Amino acid sequence: MIKGFIFDLDGVITDTAELHYAAWKKLSDDMGWQFDRELNEKLRGISRMDSIKVIMDHNGVSLDEDTVVELATKKNDIYVESLDDMTPEDYLPGARELLTHLRSEGFRVALGSASKNATKVLKQLNATHFFDVIGDGNSVSRSKPAPDIFLYAAEKLGLPPENCIVFEDAEKGIDAAKAGKFHSVGIGPEERVGHSDIRFDTMKEATLFEVKSYFKDLF
Ligand code: BG6
Ligand code: MG
Predict the structure, then answer these.
(1) Does 17 score more than 90 pLDDT?
(2) In ligand 1, which atom is closest to the CA atom of 114?
(3) 44 close to ligand 1 (CB < 6 Angstrom)
(4) Does 170 score more than 90 pLDDT?
(5) Ligand 2 geometric centre to CA of 214 (Å)
(6) In which band, very low, low, confident or very high, does the pLDDT at 112 lie, cut at 50, 70 and 90?
(7) Is the shortest distance between the CB of 113 and ligand 1 below 6 Å?
(8) I need a labelling partner for 100 at 20 to 30 A (CA). Which of 73, 90, 132, 189 fits?
């Protein structure tokens, strides 16, 4: 039976993907690196350090580890500054409604994000109270597609994976949910999250009613 829900943050609760894009673009422009939206798609769901390595590989650049950390920190400073403008108006349409609904029906809810800035984002949105457990980029070391962050969240919720549904917008996030034997809801296009149990184009369509209708034997 489904007792818990685990949410990715960026691209599911709020559209921080755009702010990550702008920050990587600024760093890349400063460095003379090629970076566009297509490459940005490859960064969805993966950690900051994995992301900069993808960008450097794409540009055929190799630097010593200290410099890479320094540049990733620079990107993060730009990103974190842009979060100051985020407000409770910046939920993706449907996300706050779903979280409110889950609370009122008494489900256990966790965050399962790769971001080390998750608590700040939740604070800006005024969303912290929706979550019983926060799993973020500081909780585990192996990032998605490893299932670790979702296993961490489920364990803290006190639930086995088969009792939980994971919401994800990243290809590697759905890979992680499947690797951990979680039920999964994909948010986004078929070519990205078509391997989820059920997929919706946006969070607006992913209502509790629709999710319950699909997983009807589990409620
Ligand atoms: C994920 C995003 O949620 O968090 C990635 O999809 C991002 O794009 C990753 O790189 C790490 O985020 P942060 O905030 O720790 O740099
Ligand atoms: Mg995401």
Answers:
(1) no
(2) 4
(3) yes
(4) yes
(5) 22
(6) very high
(7) yes
(8) 189
